Amino acid sequence: MKMQLEDLIKEVPKELLAELEYLSEIEQRMLLKLFEKNPDYFRGGLSSNRNIRLVQEETKDLGEPQKNRVKDFYDRAHLYRAFPQIASEYIKHYRKRNGSSISFIGFFERFNPRTRRINESSRSLQKYITIYLEKAQDEGTTFLEFVSSFLPTILSRRLIGTLIERGENAPRDYSIEDGLQAYIRHYEHNRENSTTLGEFFRTYSPITLEKGLGTRFLMKHYINWYTDAKDKHSDFELYLLEKANPETKERLEEIRSTLANNNLDPRTVELLKKAAEEYLLS
């Protein structure tokens, strides 16, 4: 059964649906032809072949700018499906090897997606290096930035955190304010399971917002407090709050208050409610 343009909408990544509407009907029909000839590539198949030939009859009504726009859409539809798979595979590979892993770019050069093994002769993922060179290198975009632009936010953070842990892409120096802003993001994403401010600085990454990845970037502030400021500031979290700018401090105090209330046992909460009611009635 021949596909219709309505069927193509179901195959397009959600990130590109709005852009699909701006393609002309002729461009959409060319995209449909590309999908029909190579659905595995469009759907993100890692071992699929990127190159495809359309006969002249199928593209006769399209100028070069239109053809290039459709081909670019075709590539990006693939990348939004393929890169999350590859990033997840790289992180798994790194964890499985206990941190002893090849570089990220090396993974693209040697990983075999069929066997899920590192193979010296594998070329399945090398097409992505070619795509990067064609589309992004001239703009000054790094390969990692190019890949990350097609990843969900959380997966992108995990990938960058993994590379930093491995020693690639060394990060900037994280100030206390940077750490406080990272903690606020952590809290906003994990309201029910968020950790305390002090614990975040000791054991969490300001990049991935997860425990155990890149902890050395904020841990130094705990060490500095412990060795130089503990006598003046007995509470590490209050020490951090004193270093915060006013807006950040206000938001952190709200978070600390919320966490403190959530940790109260039910009997204490009831006593507080009763005291408040008695106060209002007095």
Characterization of this structure:
This protein is an all-alpha fold and 282 residues long. The chain folds into two domains: 5-166, no CATH class; 176-277, no CATH class. Helices cover 63% and strands 1% of the residues. The chain has 16 helices and two strands. The protein has helices at 5-11, 17-20, 25-37, 39-42, 56-59, 64-96, 104-110, 126-135, 143-148, 153-166, 176-189, 197-203, 216-229, 236-243, 246-262, 266-281; strands at 111-112, 117-118. The protein has a two-stranded antiparallel ribbon with strand order 1-2. β1 and β2 form a beta hairpin.
Distance between the termini: 78 Å
Instruction: Outline the biggest β-sheet.
Output: 2 strands, antiparallel
Total number of domains:
2
The tally of helices reads 16
Rg, rounded, reads 26 Å
Range of helix content = 55-70%
Sheet with most strands: strand arrangement = 1-2
Strand count: 2
- Percent of residues in beta strands? under 5%
User: What would the principal axes of the Cα set say about the shape?
Assistant: elongated
Give me the strand/helix succession. HHHHHHHEEHHHHHHHHH
Low-confidence regions: none
Q: What's the arrangement of secondary structure elements?
A:
Blueprint: H1 5-11, H2 17-20, H3 25-37, H4 39-42, H5 56-59, H6 64-96, H7 104-110, E1 111-112, E2 117-118, H8 126-135, H9 143-148, H10 153-166, H11 176-189, H12 197-203, H13 216-229, H14 236-243, H15 246-262, H16 266-281
Helix pairs in contact: 3-6, 6-10, 11-15, 12-13
